[in-house]
Specification:
This protein is mostly helical. The protein is 68% helix and 0% strand. The protein contains eleven helices and no strands. The longest helix is centred in the middle third of the chain and has 23 residues. The chain is globular, with a radius of gyration of 20 Å.
Length: 189
């Protein structure tokens, strides 16, 4: 008769879309973790991880490696000193995690947004520019807080992403121009 008696036939109370969302998340993360030697800088970063853990860094390497990256490598080195897969796994997990969080928080069509992200080959940038892509997706997530008017949370997330890759510090400018009305003169300037 169509009445709802407060229970469902699904014993786990999970929607099919949630199951496929989790499966897609796991698939994307696993590809990043187990991609052995795929990506232009894969071998370099594997060696840099080992050098950081063994404290064998040259002065030139220290200048371009971000403090957040070095901190994460030292932290992971205490857990698994010879396993750079863990480093790639942590970066891959959080990259996909913040990508999903930002898509599901801001997109009107999350599945289409994820589809476009993959189709425009942005997902594959997680293989080549994994530090920068993690910073980008954290900053993307931070934008949701700026849109909500939560400037402090936005600043904290951008600061965290800048610790991983300094290029994301440019987004601090949005604190000053985020609510500004844009016209041709403002765009030109």
């Amino acid at each position: 008769n169509g009445r709802n008696y407060g229970f469902t036939l699904n014993p786990f109370f999970v929607k099919k879309s949630d199951i496929f969302r989790v499966l897609s998340f796991i698939l994307l993360v696993c590809v990043i973790i187990f991609r052995d030697s795929v990506g232009a800088d894969y071998d370099s970063y594997a060696q840099i991880y080992l050098d950081i853990v063994r404290n064998n860094l040259l002065d030139i390497e220290i200048t371009w490696l971000s403090p957040g990256f070095r901190f994460i490598c030292v932290l992971l080195g205490n857990i698994a000193p010879n396993n750079y897969y863990l480093m790639f796994g942590i970066f891959g997990f959080f990259s996909v995690y913040y990508l999903y969080k930002s898509i599901y928080k801001m997109s009107v069509s999350p599945y289409q947004s994820l589809y476009l992200f993959i189709c425009f080959c942005l997902y594959y940038q997680f293989f080549n520019q994994f530090r920068q892509m993690l910073a980008i997706v954290i900053t993307l997530y931070a934008l949701s807080y700026l849109l909500e008017g939560k400037r402090i949370l936005f600043s904290v997330y951008v600061l965290i992403s800048a610790m991983l890759h300094s290029s994301s510090a440019v987004f601090f400018v949005l604190l000053f121009v985020g609510k500004r009305h844009l016209n041709y003169t403002a765009l030109f300037i």
